[in-house]
Structure prediction request, 143 residues.
Amino acid sequence: MFVFSFRVETAHGIVHAEQGSLKDLNLKEGPVSVRTGSYSYTGPDGKKYTVNWTADEKGFHAQGEHLPTPPPIPEAIKKSLALPRVPEHLQAGPLGEGELPHAVELHKPLSGGLLGGEKMSHYGGYGEEKIAVRQPAPVAYGY
Prediction:
């Protein structure tokens, strides 16, 4: 079921066609708009170029013979992506003496370290700097 559909052609030969509908994904915000369409034009080289596109809950996707495509993923990378991942809580490394087995993470400290925390670049990915604050273990004194 289409909510709208149109096709326009200019005197210069540019063609734009689009169709839209609503898709119910059972979200509390309501249905999402789904659109498909195409446009074509004649380039400076005299060739006709056409782009077919879709816009939905997964984003905007355009296809055309003249549009660049990503290179294939190398086989070694594909194999590494298929390997099981180590849970993040096990990636922190060995603990020092007198530390509990968990770290409290704080994003972007005010100035310098916080509570004796050490700066750890690239801890968590995407270049976001985090602080790992390790809490000292309780000390038991025997009498």
In short: The chain has a mean pLDDT of 74. Helices lie at 75-82.
